[in-house]
Design brief:
With about 400 residues, the protein is mainly alpha-helical. It has a domain of about 250 residues: Rossmann fold. The chain has 15 helices and five strands. It has a five-stranded parallel sheet, sandwiched between helices. Helix 7 runs antiparallel to helix 10 and helix 7 packs across helix 12. The radius of gyration is 21 Å and the shape is globular. The chain starts with about 25 loop residues before the first helix and ends with a helix. About 45% of the residues are buried. The N terminus is likely disordered. One of its GO terms (biological process) is chromatin organization.
């Protein structure tokens, strides 16, 4: 993308050359609940550099010492790259063949997104009451895409990232394949993906109403006869039949267990791995952070800043199936940023339907801001009159953080 191609973008913020000259009225328009027109947030008015001293990672707290070690790999490695010199910013955005202008969008990641009915209708007991109380204080909800927005993953596998940024494709693709292997290792071993691949849900609570609350302390998931495909049942009743009462109950048990495991290890994914695999993950995350020029570390600045605000919340909508998406979030060290109840998979229903669900959950009085790199989330944002901040390179992430620091978002 050309260095100043974002000037073609419609903007809620004045295109003045200096931040100080941005009209307050233009900025304030983003706070309105009902946007009169759909806009893509202008990003060209922010300077490419800003001091790293303004950001700290202390907002993320890990209770386990080993998780601190694991997290430090990512957070520390991004510090030297906080400053983005003008030549570097130019290099990151100078390839017109791989970086479309802000007036266009090229879907460059796996198709993902979709959610279903309102999550709160599936919540039960105290958890529902707590969520309602917290949601009532919200003023702004940030809807994030995952791949190629917060993390670099899909483009590692395809080699497109290596091509765009002049990296060694063998090393880049190899790192992507190793991370993919770890994602499915965690998903299969700990999150029942073998059982749940054909029973994908938009949200972890979608089948909670079928859960009878049975104590699962001594429950044997491996011998309960559940089949995700529903085609291998030899029972003569509803037991084991896909969609039957017993089958739905066992499905709900698995998603309840998935939630428990996620909550337990959201700040300590190393607890799910052997010492050797945990060490391998530390090395891999550090390697990917170097290969991607601290992409995740740069995105984390905005995520943590939003998280520090009492009246704002980060919500993740991904086109990856829910279970591998949860594994991906854990392995990339984002479990503390995204509580499991704030993660949606759009694989089945698309991002537009996911957005509808999220609006039903949080209400129409809050402001929604969509952050992503793809055409699907841009179209969904347009349908709901939500401002859209496109991420195509490191400079867009830096500008996003600046806009947040200046309270424009």
């Amino acid at each position: 993308m050309p260095h100043h191609s974002s000037s073609t973008n419609a903007s809620l913020i004045s295109t003045s050359s200096t931040i100080a000259n941005i009209p307050a009225a233009a900025v304030a328009s983003i706070s309105n609940q009902d946007y009169p027109t759909y806009t893509i947030l202008g990003q060209n008015q922010y300077q490419a550099c800003y001091p790293s001293s303004s950001f700290g990672v202390t907002g993320q707290t890990n209770t386990d010492a080993e998780s601190t070690t694991l997290a430090a790999t990512t957070y520390q490695s991004e510090k030297p790259s906080v400053m983005v010199p003008a030549p570097a910013a130019q290099r990151l955005s100078s390839d017109p063949s791989t970086s479309p202008s802000l007036s266009q969008t090229t879907p460059n990641k796996d198709a993902d997104d979709q959610s279903r009915k309102n999550m709160t209708s599936k919540n039960r007991g105290k958890r529902k009451a707590d969520a309602t109380s917290q949601d009532s204080e919200l003023e702004r909800v940030f809807l994030w895409d995952l791949d190629e927005t917060i993390i670099i993953f899909h483009s590692l596998l395809t080699g497109s990232y290596a091509q765009k940024y002049g990296k060694d494709p063998t090393v880049v693709i190899g790192s992507g394949l190793t991370m993919e292997e770890m994602i499915f290792e965690v998903a299969d071993t700990h999150l029942f993906f073998n059982d749940l691949e054909e029973c994908d849900q938009v949200h972890v609570e979608d089948v909670a109403s079928d859960d009878n609350g049975q104590d699962l302390s001594n429950y044997s998931f491996s011998t309960d006869g559940f089949s995700g495909s529903g085609g291998s049942s030899s029972h003569g009743s509803s037991v084991g039949v896909q969609g039957g009462v017993d089958w739905m109950r066992k499905l709900a048990f698995r998603y309840r267990k998935v939630r428990e495991i996620y909550d337990k290890h959201k700040s300590n994914v190393g607890g799910l791995l052997s010492p050797q695999r945990k060490e391998a993950l530390q090395r891999l995350r550090a390697e990917i952070e170097v290969l991607t020029d601290s992409w995740l570390g740069t995105a984390l600045k905005s995520l943590l800043l939003i998280q520090s605000r009492k009246n704002c919340v980060n919500v993740l909508i991904t086109t990856t199936q829910l279970v591998p998406a949860l594994a991906k979030v854990l392995l990339y060290g984002l479990g503390e940023i995204f509580p499991i109840e704030n993660i949606y998979s759009a694989t089945k229903i698309g991002k537009e339907s996911c957005f509808e669900r999220i609006v039903s959950r949080f209400g129409k009085k809050v402001t929604y801001v969509v952050i992503g790199d793809g055409r699907d989330e841009e179209i969904a944002a347009k349908q709901h009159n939500m401002p859209f901040w496109r991420i195509t390179n490191h400079g867009d992430l830096v500008s996003l953080h600046q806009a947040l620091e200046l309270d424009f978002l």
